[in-house]
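Shift notes (night). Ran Laccase while the centrifuge was going.
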Amino acid sequence: MEQIQATPVKRLCKIHNTITVNGQFPGPTLQVNNGDALVINVVNRAQYNFTSNIKNSSYCRLSVCTHGVKQIRTAWADGPEFITQCPIRPGGSYTYRFTIQGQEGTLWWHAHSSWLRATVYGALIIYPKEGEFYPFSKPKRETPILLGEWWDVNPIDVVRQATRTGAAPKVSDAYTINGQPGNLYRCSSKDTTVVIVDSGETNLLRVINAALNQALFFAVANHKLTVVAADASYVQPFTTSVLMLGPGQTTDVLIDGNQPPGRYYIAVRAYASAQGPFDNTTSTAILEYKNTPCSVQGIKINPIFPSLPAFNDTATATTFSTSFRSPRQVDVPTEIDENLLFTVGLGLNNCPRGSSSRSCQGPNGTRFTASMNNMSFVLPPNFSILQAHYQGIAGVFSTDFPAVPPVKFDYTGNVSRSLWQPVRGTKVYKLKYGARVQVVLQGTSIVTGENHPIHLHGYDFYIIAEGFGNFNPQTDTAKFNLVDPPIRNTASVPVNGWSVIRFVANNPGVWLMHCHLDVHITWGLAMSFLVENGVSELESLVEPPLDLPVC
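Came back to this:
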């Protein structure tokens, strides 16, 4: 049983009443095997006064998502609120039932309601089936490394303030590694995360970017990292000195204990591709050799610090993201039934007529927004989209999400201000079961270009190419890797650039595609695919569970 509750958590010298799972921050690690059937009972015990000056807000409604689990035919267990379920009310519960099918590696779970995943998250480790093994030598130790963000205020207050004012939300005050900010922050040194290694052994680090709004660089002083998996899919191993993970992404790396015994910093800081404020602090943990002397001649040995890229080092981020390949040739769809182009980016809404200036504190008296194909996604208030689809409830959503941008423009150039205001709506794109789908994810320069981590629920996909500028179907198809592209569930769309993904729509249900920067999904950078049932029972959505929460 996973119990959602408020727990006192002290960070940066201050105690906060923090929403946690089972009183733990980060939450418990779930360890399963490929093929396991999971039954996770989530009980919402949170009675939490988010904001003292908002009446009737002393409760917390939420849902929980097992990020990256394919949820074959079990979309009811996917988790995003108002997409596949209504959130669990205070005092209520919901049992997520699903089977891990054909997945191994590192995933994670998190709240999928408002900004609650700032503290409600944990690792999900999927081991091979009994009697099967890793495609690399078994490491001596395995350590989940969860990267997070910490606000020295209530993060729900932060997003509510931004929603009221229309301005960008306050950036975080710290990054964390396994819940701890590390030596470089006030009141944090004694609780710094320590990862033990022994000379001559090889360990596996399962690195998860659980940060709410920030892509992150990751490095370990004086140690190379051999990447062996990402998003619970194995890759051709490659060696690097730095990782870049967008929120939602996971990377498994082998690290050899081949340095002189000592203490070495593991360090994390922002990859900030957008113009504007960001948290420019650095979080640290310590890689410590078991036979490290405590001191030399009474002087404590300080850890060695790694070399980290500059905050805006897009070249390093690109070198890393384009290094991934599948271990062998894969079955990429070559005949395409649905050829889609989705723009992804920000926008600015003019101040609504009659609104006060206090509610329009974005640039030049506007309100921030975001969209895909000029549609700013709105969650329905009374039913989940999946429930409305299954029960035939009219008026909850429409199926006219555009396959291409309504207006073609120079996506990464100097965009006319007439294109900065998207249309709000709850629109899905319908796919027939078995459809072979290609999506060009095209970033825009509206307001500012940015690296967008685009996550698709219910599916893994092949990333067959990426590049900068506007995607050109006449020339950029020559860059397509149709032999051994990586399999991911979250694609880092380059700043002012594009990524091309392909998948087969063989999992019925309603599946959210969204930017995993939570500030962007708050502003509407999302859409949903509605995948129809196939012809047989094994190609059809299961019936909704009896305890499905009501809105």
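Confidence is low (pLDDT under 50) at residues 48-59. The two ends are 22 Å apart (CA to CA).
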